[in-house]
């Protein structure tokens, strides 16, 4: 499993490598501008898929459906904690089923 602090960077790298046309289009830009363009294209792709960018990032870095489920639940637990909600309240509010605390 990829370390939490590295997930976004790895996902963006995988996204960029999977989109050679994008890399070709931005080749003449500075490194900073290239990163911005990749980030924006990544966010657009998430929007087109109807998911949040964090979820697209997870989809790009996981190795199995089980790992994706585990990582999604991890993010949801962090959000529940940040909001000060119990796990049960959060799951009910967000219609998350079969989720153990």
TrEMBL record:
Superkingdom of source: Bacteria
Which InterPro entries does this entry report, sorted A to Z?
DUF6388
Q: What is this protein called?
A: DNA repair protein
Species for this entry: Pseudomonas aegrilactucae
